[in-house]
Queue: 2 jobs
Job 1
Amino acid sequence: MGARAGRAVAAVWLGVVVTLIYLPMLSVLLASLANTRYMRFPHRVWTLDAYREALFGVGQADTLRLHQTSLAIALAVVVLAVAIAVFGALAFARARWRGRGLFRTLVMLPIFFPQPVLGLALLLALTAAGITPDWRTAVFAHLVWIAPIVTLVISIRLYGYDAAQEEAAFDLGATRLQVFREVTLPALAPGIVSGALFGFLLSWSNLPLSVFTTGADTTLPEWLFSRTATNYSPLVPAVAVIATAASAVIVAAVAVIWRLAGPRRG
Amino acid sequence: MMRARGWLAALPMLTLLAAGFAAPIAIVAVTSLMPPRTFSLTGALALSNYLAAFTEGYWRPLMWSALGALATTAICLVLAWPTANALMRLGGRVATLVAILIALPIFISESVRLFGLSLFLMPGGGILAGTLNELFGIRIGSILNTRLAALIGLVYIHFPFVLFPLMLGLGLVPRDQVEAARDLGASGWQLFREIEAPLAAPGAAIGAMLCFVLALGANAEAAILGGRAVTVATQAIEQRFSYAQDWPQGAALTMLLVLITALVVIPLLRRVDLDRLIGR
């Protein structure tokens, strides 16, 4: 097979894969443009009624509350996960210490663990401890899974980082705190930003941990999950589209701000 | 000094893992040994819940979860290998863009994606059936609410988790070595067996393990796409916890899943060299 033909086959295969991956999401978008409770595609009437209802009509209170809950959880998770992960990454990728191998295996464990099982285990543990689950316990549950992932993301950055810079700063008489603030942290900044974005998106979209650990509070993915089974209306896909768009807007905003205001690397 | 710093830096994460990972599993382990339908943590230890897991029909959801996870892993590997190769072959900006397009959905909620898949597969007025009927007058049935639909959902959700570790692994295969073998007349199958497969094995193993473990605990696929056709392990556990109020039985089933996960994950995590795979 010639190189040309090989590339053509590769391009067609990838086209098929990407199309199949996006068809279900396109389906959500299409379903949101109907005005009937029972979907009969193609719609007789194409309308944005469901969006109007979700944003300004009877669905407004729900939409707002769900977004607030998901946002509160995601922001708390990002702040705490990054704080834990910056140090975790130093221990993971930089410092030479005796427990390092074991530490790395331990950090990987929650990532290589079925999330619903973790959620159920946390639910049982919370019940045993007499703690009533609400959005704060969900923050804790998300952290157990997301802090290790953010640690990995920052670690990847650390692998490509030259430790000699720190030593040079020490030689020039900087204190340990100064080195951390002036040398290590700026060098890690891109890793921290991408880690924070990862953490935000993973928390925002998480279903399996939230289902078991939010108690009476409801996140967006949970609400969508319950409404796909019962009480379907075009409002459901409309809220799905709004929630996905909201996370995209937040990420794009952070990326733009980082581009404009972030430190320049020389 | 470096040694002390390593410990200190690891401390917050270790505390989180102790409180949020080790402790809950330990509590589940103790609960699983309590007499059925009790709420205490101090009863006489008993293995009856584990026996019941196999005698009272709970093996069925466990079996479906294990079979589903195995099938998902196999299908994802078969689909991811040519995809990873195609991305390598294409190279450059286009390949990066395609890789990003494949990765993006990881950040879109499972509920949204599976919901979309169910809208797509829905009978009658579903996106696929409705489109075919409108354009070509073809009426098709639907696989929604079958085990096959749940399996398709599992593959759909877990595909990127196999693809990207596999790409990391294939990235370790030196291109000139492949070219050299090809120049020397190696066939596609020989290339795969003699060069790519052994060198890409760590990435493939990580991807396959991640996929198996995540699919083993997955429940949304069966709930949204499988209808009542199948009950998977985590659904069975949830039923024990909620409707049946039988926490010890649910805990025993949970521990069986934890055990399978540990048997798959720990040996592999100890063997694969992370520095080599992600550091480079």
Job 2
Amino acid sequence: MTKAGDPRAAEAVSWGHQDEGEAAGVIMPASTPRRGFLKGAALAGAGLMTGSVAKAAPLPIPESNTVMGDPIPAESYGLPTEFEKHVKRRRSDVFKNKQNFSDWSMTPLQHQIGIVTPNGLFFERHHNGVAKIDPDKHRLVIHGLVDRPLEFSMDDIVRYPSVSRFHFMECSGNTLTDWREPKSVTVQQSHGLLACAQWTGVPLSWLLAEAGVKPEGKWVMFEGGDGSGHLRSIPIEKVMDDALLVYGQNGERLRAEQGYPIRAFFPGWEGNTCVKWLRRIKVVAEPDQIRGETARYSDPMPNGKWRQFSMVMECKSVITSPSGGMSLKGPGLYEVQGFAWSGNGKITNVDLTFDGGRTWREAAIEGPALDKCLTRFRYRWNWDGGPAKLASRAMDSTGYVQPTVEDIARVREISGFVQHHNGIFPWTVAQSGEVSNAIA
Amino acid sequence: MRSRDLLGLVAGALLAGVSSVDAADYGQRPEVGYGKPVADADLVLWNIDIHTPDGANLPAGEGTVPAGKLVYEQKCIACHGEKAAGGPVYGTLVGGIGSMTKSPRVLTPGSMYPYAPILFDYVRRAMPMDAPQSLTNDEVYAVAAYIYNLNGLVPDDFKMNATTMARIEMPNRDAFVRDNRPDTLAERCMSDCKPIGTVADASKPAAAPR
């Protein structure tokens, strides 16, 4: 794995011109229609009772009013309209892998409406491509330090009563390209290893209780049925607390790239713990310390140390509009929007700065503000047309305040491939209206 | 009509009461279970994870450095390059010992893995990428001997097996610490705050709190 030669140049091609188009990246101030209205009102006040000045020709009848629409096919899986084709999950192109099997694709957060990420836009991270598994042949096994080793078919699993919960999922590596330099242009590139869904399945605690965990069973290993045999060990406390065996996502069965037919789900914990294509659960006394628990998913610390099993995704937020690559068209009112989330609880407050952090104002949190779930914030900002530096800062129900990258760099080593970046992420707005990554 | 409406209300309230009682078991473990018993013997091909600190569950078999070189040149070289020094798809698998206190840290099985059997576990389950789980146990031991030999951790005549692999002393063995977050102690400053700092700012002395 190596870095792209010039990520910004690559970005200009893939985002600025080919895919996004000019119009998609431009935000008009919310005050434009209001000004039009005020102008009209002033004219009316001056005695022109006919209202606004008429155009040269009346608005034409739209073609769609004059023809039959598309017929309903006998059966189909509906896709977004052709006019939304630019809203796509995109393979990592800032940190560019030389193959696309152990690789990732990123959610277009700047286009996400509401807190739920559509399944086709939910980010991917695989270690050896997308496994293809026939659910009728799939078997899940629970063994190890249990009284009764058990085997389950998919028919067995879906027979249990189910629960459904909304939770975010974030890759431990989200934002890792942007510690010391502003490498990402868009928020899809900087924060797109993040998404949120309603997950449906069976509490893992039920299945482990059915197998009967022995007293010496303190960790639980989860192994996938993919070509990497991806494996992680999880403390039994988390497994028995809120972990799920999920087969449903946003109202349908999991997509293949999300682990069809079943995956583990650990709310608020880094995505790679939520082992996809799950086929084996082994209760153990202590972790195996395999590659994914030592050489990968560990964090460099001062004095040559490595922090391991850092699986909670701490409180974080980002402004998605306006965000990198967008352009504001003139001064006026803009609704600043973004997401906040915490693997440790609920979002309680989101503050925004427009002056690079000297002063902060509280944004409105748009409910629902659920536990370990993407939470939306909004703020009406009147841009005066001058240079501005915007950022959001979230606080969660434990009282934890999202740090700056400086705060993080004071206690960890920022060197190489550094994960768990939950730093405050500033964007600058130039006088031209151009919005840019301002992490450094 | 009015009394019928009232009846409807009462019936509705009763129904609501009943359904809330029924709902009390939502999220509770049902008394039934659908798992079928499975024997250890059924799982011999599945139970392949290695407890790497002591090598528990390493299988029988053995491999040498020259045998590993042959396996490497057939199955690995296309991606990892000559002598595992890095190829068209992946970076080096050799070197980096002593780099953990430098920047950048060079991460290889030799410099990074705290326990030697990690390489067996990973190669057997995941390599080669286009045919995982296709190597024999002898081939996995051999290729591990070759990689660790290139890293200077085992001699040319080393015989890699379950016993010898677990005894290799790895330089990064004591480098791992458990998660102790939260490790940042940011405060919610609203006005007259220090501007948002950068990673570079962290190498300067911390400003006095305002």
